[in-house]
Design a protein that fits this description.
With 189 residues, the chain is mostly helical. It has ten helices and no strands.
């Protein structure tokens, strides 16, 4: 890439890749400039700071998860159907946006003040969607679980959030099979 071709979106995408690979603290602005073929001074024409880049990448991850949850809720149905859609949506977000997801899950803790508060609120709202679907499924009988929805939500999200560490989209298991495997484990017939 030449420096005249880089857009702000290119810079944010490169930051997401490097933050996912090296971590926020393991990535310097010099590293980012090298990734993009930019001198340090040219990089600052796109962004004001490395933290601004972290905010953008993490907020994108939060937005993708929120949009997925909204689609699952809007589709209606039983609690179990909603939970399955939440699981499938989470898998899709992870597979299609691995750099943003890794950064969201692993690097958001380095945000300061207001940014951190917004991301924590977004995370809490997303987690509440899972608890609500589980609660609905227990109440409507579509889930035969005898557990606290909060604990069940933590359990389900723990499984889903681990995907970024081990799932290989080019491996033998496609995303549909992955969703089916997770669902069968959580809700055996």
């Amino acid at each position: 890439m030449t420096s005249t071709r880089n857009t702000r979106e290119d810079v944010i995408a490169a930051a997401g890749r490097l933050f996912a690979q090296r971590g926020y603290h393991g990535t310097s602005m010099r590293d980012l400039g090298q990734e993009l073929g930019l001198l340090g001074s040219s990089l600052y024409s796109h962004v004001t700071s490395k933290e601004d880049l972290l905010v953008e990448v993490v907020e994108k991850g939060a937005r993708l998860f929120a949009e997925s949850a909204e689609a699952a809720r809007a589709a209606g149905g039983t609690g179990a159907e909603r939970l399955r859609r939440l699981i499938a949506g989470h898998v899709d977000v992870v597979v299609d946006n691995l750099d943003e997801v890794k950064t969201f899950l692993n690097e958001a803790r380095f945000l300061n003040g207001e940014h951190r508060g917004r991301i924590l609120a977004a995370r809490d709202s997303y987690e509440a969607e899972f608890r609500d679907a589980i609660r609905q499924g227990i109440e409507d009988g579509s889930l035969r679980w005898r557990t606290d929805p909060k604990m069940a939500g933590i359990f389900v999200l723990s499984i889903l959030n681990a995907l970024e560490r081990w799932y290989d989209p080019s491996g033998p298991m496609g995303r549909e099979e992955l969703v089916e495997t997770i669902w069968s484990f959580l809700n055996p017939a």
